[in-house]
Write a structure and sequence with these properties.
Helices cover 52% and strands 6% of the residues. It is mostly helical. It has 3 domains: 56 residues, Rubrerythrin, domain 2 (Single Sheet), CATH 2.20.28; 210 residues, Citrate Synthase, domain 1; 106 residues, Cytochrome P450-Terp, domain 2 (Cytochrome p450-Terp, domain 2), CATH 1.10.230.10. The structure holds acetyl coenzyme *A (ACO).
């Protein structure tokens, strides 16, 4: 269906702005000709209204709480699929058949040896270095060790190598970092013996992976695998739009994810719950703090730019949290604090009015903690999960011939022209 164009009246002129429509009937005002026709730019703080691209990877409807990867509901994928299958789905657009899945796993296995130089970089960090710093630095360092994928446009065959290679390398780096920070020897990948997720667990802990742990980790990684044009994915696309290589683009995604308003929230949630516990467990006091506009404190793991009803990932994680803790026989008092906090916030007018609900990070940390993953590594787990999404979005971008370098405009509010004063004459 063609939509009626919108009309913009400005300064005595009228221009027509086309309205485009996506496959789920989302409509967008196309302002590509706006500046040429009117001299105006648009101002959109935090890109609240801006669709930076068209994309076929992920659909989400924040009002209805819907999230689908390539059309498949997140609930079905979390229940029935595996992380590796979902990664293939995101990157290549379809669920793999048995032969394609084998091919993908083989590719990951084939490119899973990590160069000694990268291992040395990881070992050279101080033990207390934040794992996200190690991850971002090591991912971009891969470009220096693999110039064959770091220069110029990649062929189809090269993309089929470098994308599985990055999955293998990020997994290794995350596990190596954990071991190096604990003063332990690094354990290399063993793709002949283990599937992707089990291999990661074996590399991290140096023992046979537990079935329940692997199940839990698959669910968490699937739920984090993509989330359309969020802060980190937009960073991957923006950096990649300059034709910077895929390692640099993904490393930028890691950096953006680190922030506590984005992926770093999972670490912040546990720290907040521990703070509440240390303070005697009175979560109502912290709700008051979150509502106080003179206090910078926010309820971490609450609120989302897009979800204004509920975050479907949070629903799945909350349920999984109960099941996993029970199966692993873990009793964590933080879970009771989290549930109390959620219950209290959901009936509080401040949170109701602003449509603030628990997001994916609210309960994920409790599961990571039950899996014995150190708190400062939670965001690395998020990055491991988000990697196939970044790769899928990067691939879609480089394969779209109309992609332009990302370069927003601004409204300048600084000094008018003035002239240089030599140092000796400056006050
Ligand atoms: N606690 C208390 N108040 C909040 C919270 C919160 N967690 N989140 C939003 N608000 C309030 C704001 O103060 C604002 O109130 P106001 O209208 O009175 O000024 C209103 O709700 C709207 O908030 P914004 O910050 O404008 O919403 P935005 O869409 O820009 O931010 C964000 C979304 C960053 C997720 C925010 O809700 C937040 O900071 N949450 C806590 C951090 C977090 O959990 N991040 C993870 C998000 S999920 C992910 O990235 C994986």
């Amino acid at each position: 269906m063609t939509n009626k164009p919108a009309e913009l009246h400005y300064d005595g002129h009228t221009i027509e702005l086309p309205v485009t429509e996506g496959s789920e009937n989302e409509r967008g005002l196309d302002i590509n000709k706006l500046r040429d026709a009117t001299g105006l730019v648009t101002i959109d703080n935090g890109f609240m209204n801006t669709a930076a691209t068209s994309s076929a990877v992920t659909f989400l409807d924040g009002e209805k709480g819907i999230l689908r990867y390539r059309g498949y509901p997140i609930e079905e994928l979390a229940e029935k699929s595996t992380f590796i299958e979902v990664s293939y789905l995101l990157i290549y657009g379809e669920l793999p058949n048995a032969a394609r899945l084998k091919w993908f796993e083989n590719q990951i296995g084939k490119y899973s040896a990590t160069k000694d130089g990268i291992k040395s970089i990881i070992k050279s960090f101080p033990k207390e270095a934040h794992p996200m710093a190690v991850l971002a630095a090591s991912v971009v360092a891969l470009a220096g060790f693999h110039p064959e994928y770091a220069e110029g446009d990649l062929t189809e065959a090269q993309k089929d190598e470098v994308l599985p290679q990055l999955m293998a390398q990020v997994k290794n780096i995350a596990a190596y970092q954990y071991r190096a920070s604990h003063g332990q020897d690094l354990i290399d990948a063993n793709p002949k013996k283990y599937d992707y997720v089990s291999d990661f667990v074996a590399q991290m802990y140096g023992k046979e992976p537990d079935v329940e742990v692997i199940k839990a980790m698959n669910i968490l990684l699937i739920l984090h695998a993509d989330h359309e044009q969020n802060c980190s994915t937009s960073s991957v696309r923006l950096v990649g739009s300059s034709k910077a290589n895929v390692y640099a683009s993904v490393s930028a995604g890691v950096d953006a994810l680190w922030g506590p308003l984005h992926g770093g929230a999972n670490q912040a949630v546990i720290e907040m719950l521990q703070e509440i516990q240390a303070d005697g467990g009175d979560y109502k006091k912290f709700i008051l703090k979150a509502k106080n506009k003179d206090d910078n404190f926010r309820l971490m793991g609450f609120g989302h730019r897009v979800y204004k009803n509920f975050d479907p990932r949070a629903k799945i994680i909350k349920k999984a949290c109960d099941t996993i803790l029970e199966k692993l026989n873990v009793k964590d008092p933080l879970l009771a604090i989290a549930k109390g906090l959620e219950e209290e916030a959901l009936k509080d007018q401040y949170f109701v009015e602003r449509k603030l609900y628990p997001n994916v990070d609210f309960y994920s940390g409790i599961i990571y903690k039950a899996l014995n993953i150190p708190t400062n590594m939670f965001t690395v787990m998020f990055a491991l999960g988000r990697l196939p999404g970044w790769e899928a979005q990067w691939k879609e971008m480089v394969e779209t011939t109309s992609t332009k370098i990302g370069r927003p405009r601004q409204i300048y509010i600084g000094s008018k022209e003035r002239h240089f004063v030599p140092l000796s004459e400056r006050k």
